[in-house]
Amino acid sequence: MYFDSWSGFLVMEGHGLYVWSAYTMALAVIAYNLIAPFMARRRILAQITAQVRRQERLVQRNVIVNEVRGDNNENRSANPENTQLKHRPRRQEEGSESVERSAQ
Amino acid sequence: MNWTFFHKLGSPKWFYDISGKWLPWLQVSSLVLILVALVWGLAFTPPDYLQGNSYRIIFIHVPASFLAQSIYMMMATAAAVTLIWRIKLADMALKVMAPVGASFCILSLVTGAIWGQPTWGTWWVWDARLTSMLILLFLYIGIIALRGAIHTTEAAAKACAILSLVGVVNIPIIKFSVDWWNTLHQGATLKLTEKPSMAPEMLWPLLLAILGFYLFFTMVMVLRLRIEIISRERKTRWVKELVS
User: Which CATH number does the domain housing residue B22 bear?
Assistant: First the structure.
């Protein structure tokens, strides 16, 4: 170790404040880069699990069977019967809950 | 020549699987290297004969500045790959590198300012090196903001790729600014073509710190890229199985 004492290490012959603030800044940047990905990971995993659960619920109720088979909008609108089937049971069975959900 | 590895490299799922194996090694090696290098630089190296103890900032300032420029070059490379081959993974890399590069660019500017005060007697001067580095930060911020402003993924990818490529002109300006203009900033300490102008007992911790910072960046980029992959591939079966 170059310095004789802890106080000498802290003061660094008058340059301590500069050196230590630079190292603190480095620590802050390293901490940001470590924390930010974990926060993002949690947020996105929560989004995806919510999405998967919502889809599973809807599949169970047989409401969006068409969407699960294939995400093809043209096919669905080309066949008016299909469109009707898709919308009708939802309006009859469920109340405001499903309206809210489809608005999302 | 067999090109399968190239196509595999562009597959998000393949990258997700293989990068999971790299992560623990990257995490341990980068953090250990940075810790060793910074403790060495702070406590065990002798002070500079001219600058005294303030020169110890070099062990952060130089690696951060190297990274800020290298990350930009990597982003520009990813931008070219995005535009030429339309590889999705390249655009994801471009996106996740930007905030990391910006953070190291800020670190470089702030540590430079802190170092400038005891050495030059001022926090900031509008000279070529400092100004071109500030422009690099604005480029990073511009790329992040541009992506935030465009909602379709493909359009955002193209716009950000073009902006990244245009901004490359700034990189040689940063590098040669200390040679082309009279600046307060000292010349390069490390050169590939010459012997370093630094004593070995100061050089070793600096080289370790640079290596540690690069490994740290690789680790952070892999972490962020894996999250971006999951986010963009959320409709695929493998991601749904992974999550549930």
Answer: 1.20.120
